[in-house]
Amino acid sequence: MNLAGRIRKHFDDSAQTKLQVKDTLAQPIADAAQAMVECLINDCKILACGNGGSAADAQHFAAELVNRFEIERPGLAAIALTTDSSVLTSIGNDYDFSLIFSRQVRALGMADDVLLAISTSGNSINVVEAVHAAHERGMRVIALTGREGGTMGEILEADDIHICVHAERTARIQEVHLLTLHCLCDAIDHLLLGGE
Prior knowledge:
alpha/beta, 196 residues, Rossmann fold
């Protein structure tokens, strides 16, 4: 297969994965958007975390809420726990890398806030620890995972929402995660502002 053919196959695989999971994910994404809107209209906030590409997704989502997605509106309260290098490195140095998100959740999270926890495997130790911390703080968790959901899928509570992309390749999972985040942004705006 030549390089252009290889690239076309990535497009085909990505599109097929999205089409395969759309019916499974539509309701949990809608439920997550409702939970986030309830949080925001009650003057609470959304904290988001993940590693690597999932860290970028957490930051992307927070930016879309604090600034705007596709329509003009006031900023919404969202914080990516992946962005403060001094906080991250001090916790990693003084304690352990596994605690970089959970210590922030315990410091910043309040009852009725929402944690958006992103891990393609569902097994990222520091994200799992953030879920535990969120539960301690009385926060609802929206878990964005892949494969079979990993440890995160096992520790979620009844009120939490699990958006699990049942695919094996990390790249395909991340591509669906990004689409999911855009769906959440659109749904939040729709629920808050109405319109088409």
